[in-house]
Amino acid sequence: MTTKRSATPTTEPDPRRLVTLIEARLTEVAANDPLNRAAAYGGRRIYDDPLVGIAAAADPLFERLRDETIVGPHHLTPREWLPEAKSVVSYFLPFADWIREPNRAPGMVAEEWVVGRFDGEDFNNHLRRQLAAYLVELGGKAVVPSHTDRHRITARRSNWSERHAAFVSGLGTFGLSRSMITRAGSAGRFGSAITTLDLAPTPRDYDGPYDRCPWLVTGGCGACIGRCPSGAITADGKDTATCAHYLDHVVKPLFASRYGCGKCQTGVPCESGIPAPGMKPLHAR
Length: 285
What we know:
alpha+beta; five-stranded antiparallel sheet; two-stranded antiparallel sheet
């Protein structure tokens, strides 16, 4: 989806003020929009308040994502989506506890998690559209990569990675399970939009892509290894092919078209926050 500049744009506030306005608008939508409510579960909120991060469209990290060992040469930079782009707005939607808690139990995915995964993604897509419309209201142009006809996912690899955009935008770093660890944890969903507005980038309080994962930094934790029912996560990392096979051939047949897992994002120290860096190993190497 590409949204063009409003015919009567408002005067642009300063870059920091713009970010404050965007954060407030996304928080308001998450709090009040009925799409963020699960009707089958008493109308409870699917997501808690979003976290918002901003990256400069020209940040050299976006170019580095083209490396085959990171995302790959198919990954497009912000200015390949929108030539005049100045900023990327990324956000994280943390799942509410009533969705996370049942999935902490071992075994098959909880029904609540599946509801969050699918009904929650309907809201996430709605929030992407709301974000783009608000960026236009503020006087810019906006593109939501995942809503354009240029967006591609091949072998579960996208030409616009929401998680990597979140990393560049200061929202978090990757864990052993390849989940993104934000200050609200890893159990949730990401979204983003690219804009011509000049926004104040979010300072990254980390240097490397794994700085918030104790296992990858000090050898501590490792809880997601034992949580993975497919055995895809080991001391050496995550085998995405094993994970995909488990999802497609074990879980999907039991849940028809709506299925998921999320065991590596629940029942772990990074479920709802950043793990303590000095924690002891929870799994043998």
